[in-house]
Specification:
- The protein has 434 residues and is an alpha+beta fold.
- The chain has two domains: 202 residues, no CATH class; 151 residues, Beta Polymerase, domain 2.
- Helix content is 41%, strand content 11%.
Amino acid sequence: MAATKNTRAIENADLVRNAESRRSKVLAQTLAKVQEGIALDDAAGNIRVFGPWARELHYVNQHIAVPQVEVDKAAEAYNDVANHLVKKLKWPNEAIKVLPQGSTSTQTLIRSPGNDKFDIDAVCQVDISRISAQDPMRFFKTIGDALTEYSATAKKRCWRLPFNGERFYLEFTPSVPLEKASSQDLDTMAPLYRPDQEYIGTALAVVDTPTEKWKTSNPAGFTKWVDDTSKRKLIRELIAEAADSMGKSASNVSPVPDQDVNISDTLRVAIRLFKRHRDMCARRSLIGKEFQPISIIIVTLLTQCYAGLHDLGRSYSHPVQLLVELAELIRDMVPEVDGEFRVDNPTVPGENFAERWNSDAGQRQTTFRTWCDILAADMRTILAAQNEQEIRSRVRDVFGCPPDSSRPNGSGGSGGTKTAHRPPPPAPITSGLA
């Protein structure tokens, strides 16, 4: 395991070094000028750099969060489906475990700027030592048939439950623990898709319907990788606050994590802000929606970049500096290996999240670079603002937040009815955005 960690650290550091060698110097120069011009001492004698930017980006982070009341409602439906599945299939309760995956699991779920529904991704993990599930397609269909009452429709590896009239939908992925799969099933999987040893305990076999075979997946391992990386400190004298727990749940149903991410979590805040920026670029037709970078690529690249900066011993005096650094480096974090672009799954070696980049005449790779260039340019525009009013206007315009309204309560949209002006809540004095 130590060898695996060391190899990954070297790879992440190399990716960052390569990105640093190719990055534009314009954004760094803008950052330096701002830092020289705005550093002020507060009453405690602490240097307050980027205070106005921190407050506004803090506001955006709160604005784009899915309201907790909606998350709680989705979590209730999530639990109801799990209970329904147990009863419908008449399988032993201990044979089934349901756990969240995707953005809800990594706590990077954000609201759509277009008032669209958000998704709750879940994995239905079945112990095949207790249940016969050797045939992957039969297993997949059995789960789907049990979800008929929810109007489930089949996708590539999951069943989608629309929940008409609600603000969310559920994507439910049938799976079995990889350690429970037979040697015959393992032999049908591509050798490159065996799980990383560090995360092997949470590896799963999911049904890949196009090939009608099992395929390795590891959503819990991926979540742990993001979580472990987020705990590394890159901000000097960072004071982190513990996040509240959502409470206990039934042993066979893991709770949907609280999406109210503490502002001290720099990595997750960066993921959320950058995902929002991508959404706004697509909404404004600055990039094509069909070829926009998918969230798993953004999450992977930012986590790799964050880890690589830590492995190289880098540190920052303020989180805005780190956000600028990530915005500047992410563009060149995608290596080209043997003529193919790669964004490797850290928990399933050989799986390439950027696989489609290599079969679309370069459209996804070009769109990704275009988005990154816009992101860096928008950061320059934000940092070039001269006063708090201008900073507020530019930040909220870039991220599609209403200029004169408070955070919506369950609207799910990007604007809505204007209310009396209410200033954004102040960022924590000790740590700003980090």
